[in-house]
Amino acid sequence: MNQPHTEFSEFHWLVEVLQTVDIGIVVLDMEYNITAWNSFIENNSGVDSADALGRNIFDVFDDLSEQWFKHKAETVTQLRNRAFTTWEQRPYVFKFKNTRPVTGVTDYMYQNTTFIPVANSAGDVENLAIIVYDVTDTATSKIELGEVNDQLALMSRTDGLTQMLNRGYWEDLLAKEFLRQQRNPREHSLIMLDIDHFKNINDTYGHQVGDDVIRAVAKVILDNLRATDFSGRYGGEEFSLVLIDSDQQNSFQLAERLRKKIEQTAVPLPDGEVFVTVSLGVAGWKPEMSEYAQWIEQADQALYESKRNGRNRTSLAP
Length: 318
Ligand SMILES: Nc1nc2c(ncn2[C@@H]2O[C@H](COP(=O)(O)OP(=O)(O)OP(=O)(O)O)[C@@H](O)[C@H]2O)c(=O)[nH]1
Known about the structure:
Blueprint: H1 3-20, E1 24-29, E2 34-37, H2 39-45, H3 49-52, H4 57-60, H5 66-79, E3 83-85, E4 111-119, E5 125-134, H6 136-157, E6 165-166, H7 167-183, E7 189-195, H8 198-205, H9 207-224, E8 230-233, E9 238-243, H10 248-263, E10 267-269, E11 272-274, E12 278-284, H11 292-308, E13 314-316
The chain binds guanosine-5'-triphosphate (GTP).
Guanosine-5'-triphosphate (GTP) binds at residues 161, 194-199, 202, 207, 210-211, 214, 236-237, 307, 311.
């Protein structure tokens, strides 16, 4: 005698809960017409439940991908299995505005969603429920963390003063290129370049001007290499370059071009300008080299020969 009343109050209580929870609930029939629409969906879509009920979901959300949605829904109802989508696979199913204070990361609510087949008492699937979780906070912090990590990765590869590769990363690239050379040799060359009497620049004009000189030399190098070449700041006023598909003789010519351009590059001073010269050493790759350090060593020896012979010149490794 009490049974119907209990069931009714339980139902009422359940509906109350569904209206209050902080997740979205949409229920559709097999023709994709809306049969339930809770307050969360109402508030975020701006469509009242009274207006939504009975309407087709694709009319209410005209940017909902019909093909994708139907495929998902059919899989769920035919297999009688739940299915999930995460914001990483698809940022949102229903396009709701992001209600958070401006994050700069997203204009829309990131959502995880669950598709649930709903069977009647006879066991036939007659409805499809879609549960929507607002995961904007998690998603934005994960995206921001990813951006910070990218930034850190870039910083860990780059020299702060010149924006060239730093020595560690340049050597990593050299090590990889060296391994490729051992398998499939080509005519690559390595150049070491050092600013002449740089200590005098610092001592005469101060470290600020010294830094400007280093930046100016780096710019000439970067502006004159091919996209496939790679250069790094090897030490304070020393730079290292790998020229791809350039034999020792061609690389000597490029080194001379760099040397002359740097010699003609004026670095501004508060009251005038200063010019510097550089010394260079060029070493082509040789099959007898068993490790990349020997390649650097050969270019270094050629560089020191340039220094010994009076600087502002290029020497070739023997
Ligand atoms: N301003 C500035 N100076 C630096 C930096 N890194 C290294 N140095 C200076 O570079 C100078 C290098 O001097 P040395 O190794 O004696 O060589 P050099 O004076 O160039 O003489 P040679 O190479 O023989 O022609 C030192 O005084 C270092 O303090 C930097 O990032 N900025």
